[in-house]
Design a protein that fits this description.
The complex is a heterodimer.
Chain A lengths: L1 H15 L2 H29 L8 E4 L5 H15 L12 H4 L8 E4 L5 H14 L4 E5 L1 H6 L3 E4 L5 H22 L4 H8 L19 H35 L2 H6 L4 H41 L14 H28 L3 H27 L4 H8 L4 H11 L4 H29 L9 H10 L1
Parallel strand pairs in A: 1-2, 1-3
Antiparallel strand pairs in A: 3-4
Helix pairs in contact in A: 1-11, 2-11, 3-7, 7-8, 9-11, 9-12, 9-13, 9-15, 11-12, 12-13, 12-15, 12-16, 13-15, 14-15, 16-17
Chain B lengths: L3 E12 L2 E12 L3 E5 L6 H8 L7 E6 L2 E2 L9 E4 L11 H11 L4 H14 L19 H13 L5 E5 L7 H16 L3 E6 L2 H7 L2 E6 L2 E7 H7 L4 E6 L5 H8 L5 E6 L4 E5 L5 H10 L4 E7 L3 H9 L13
Helix pairs in contact in B: 2-3, 2-4
The chains are: A mainly alpha, B alpha/beta.
Chain lengths: 447, 322
Amino acid sequence: MDKLWVVIKREYLERVRSRWFIFTTIFGPVFFGAVTVLPTYMARRTINSGRVASIHILDATGTGLGHRVADRLAQQQHTGGAGGFGGGRFARGASTAPQSIPSVVEDLNPPRLAAAESIATKDVMTGVSPGYLVLDSATVTGYKARYAGRNASAVGQIEEMQTAIRQSIIASRLEGAGIRPDRIDSLTDVKVDLSSVRLDERGRGDSGIVSFIFGAIVAFMLYMMIMLYGQNVMRSVLEEKTTRVAEVIMASVKPDILLAGKILGVGAVGLTQQIVWVGSAAGFITYGAVMAKAMGMPQMQGMTFPTVPPSLLLSLVLFFVLGYVLYSAMFAAVGAMVGSQEEVQQAAQPVILMLVASIIFFEPVLLNPTGTLAVVTSIIPFTAPVIMPVRMTTIQVPPLELAGSLIGLAVTCFVVIWAAARIYRIGLLMTGKRPNLPELMRWIKYA
Amino acid sequence: MTETALDIRAISKSYGDYQAVRSLSLAVPQGAVYGLLGPNGAGKTTSIRMILNIIAPDEGSISILGRPNTERGSLDRIGYLPEERGLYKKMQVRRVLRFLGQLKGLTAREADRRIDEWMERFSLKTAEKDWGQSKIDELSRGMQQKVQFIGTLLHDPELVILDEPFSGLDPINAQALKDTVVDLKKRGKSVIFSTHMMENAERLCDSVCIIARGGKVLDGTVAGVKQEHGGNNVALALAGGGGAELVNRVVADHKMVERVDDSNRFFEIALQKDADPQALLRRLIDAGAKVQRFELVQPSLHQIFLEKVGATGVEMGMSGNG
């Protein structure tokens, strides 16, 4: 036991002291934050950059719809965005940006449309205008409009134009029905903020979207941790093998203890990192709303750290620990099997694929956490460590399924560790070519 | 002090059809320097790994200082320097050594004290530079070898096992190693080293065991082994030039000479049993050789080794490295 502790201590301290660990632990949350917040921020910024308003509108409806759309777009520019996320508002920088050029509206007779369109296309190609919008009789009757431009793939901008067109059509119809024009704006300006709440049998619930995000984050973190630290174990085994330290160590401790110490030590590093991350996330969410408000991000206000019941937390930790042990044992066996850094990535692929499978199933499971796929993948021991936590955070998993999944995982862990320890024991002392499957079986048999 | 440091009884180990070690028995008295000699692939490393309980023998038993080597704590009394040496490259020297010491049961404080002692002795810690804070890969190869050697001896083992210790050592480190082996013996420790370099074994060992193809060929004290195989051997050295071809013909005459080992500037000649060394000397002088040294000698271990093991004793081993 003393020796196990010595091994654990070395694995833990050498990693925690490394620059890599300090860097990822500190900058991990910053990085994740940047990855999740920045794209939204950027997208919102682009919308408000005034480019949409300066497009060319070819109006062949003969009803003045083009001018209405142009007005709406210009209006959105000022009030900030098309609603929906209310996102435009947080990009305060945009409203202080130079006044945008209003859209150019061209009223046309339908026969002249084709010619005008080819001129507009050239303008876009030469960069004179960012894009052009075609409104014709189909727009009025069938709600169809066409847009062509350099920014045609920007979802936010297209959405904004759609809203402008829809509201313009409604407005013109209301006017046709005799509604006073000054009432129209207030009638058509409708924003619905759909908030969803998750209910379980105790009636308690978090906001549905929060538990959805929480589930996704938990799954992704588990996946990342298992992948990252499992491979860390693999590299550590390989290092000891290639530098030949393994033989010196094995003259002092049994390989099983060395393997156990390695897995536990590296796992403790992962746990340390998670504690730091989860802690800083909790802090960010608790105090972040204030910060977000100051930064002008109103949608952050609705976000609270989901209340995690202790039983759920316990099962999450259990799944993480078992999943990590399962995969790191397999990674360790791979590390002991190969003889060099070059070989190891290839040899690790079967293990990595099993892990990647759980991330492939993750999205459909998240969307339908009670479906057959979800049930099956949360029982299979190799996908369970990632999939079951996803289900647990989004729905109430039946206790029988939960127990089955856990027992299956634990048993598999046991068998895999047993086999991996044997491969490890022999592999560490072997040099030369990587064993094929029958040879591997023989190692397991004879060790 | 009559206790045996290491007692191996009829150990065997097979890998599938390949028998790496067959029924090997040997005893190393306490305080002895013992050579385990054999060509590559003879089963030296496999035997050593069994002694260290890294692999288990299929048959037989091994006891260290009177206790089975599978017993808890018995491995703590052994220091081991493997043939393929290496340390954690990115780890600080002192931390590596402390780790190795703690694995053998030392406390961190005790380990630190001894690390200082050894590092000063091997001039890895001097007034101007303490290499203890450096990472292993910042050290020169020679210094890394010293660190490895300290790691082997830090816990003051009763039995020290050195697998091919001289391979890759520069002359200065080789000398330091030799001095340390002698010092260990003086302090009553037992040293086993495996090698296929007979000159080292001959100079250092009290006793030897020659193994080939997994089995023992002979063992005993170096003096005893030599006496037993004492034949009609001549050491011959010639002063430069002068009828080299003629001399070579004389030396290679199979009526008189059984085997000749030409080391360029020095010949070791095994005469036929009934051949007269004086006759050889006469013929050499007649051939015009300027004899610098002509000495009746006991055969070197090298000669005995060649005679006993021969070229056929060398097989490709399963261990892959010796």
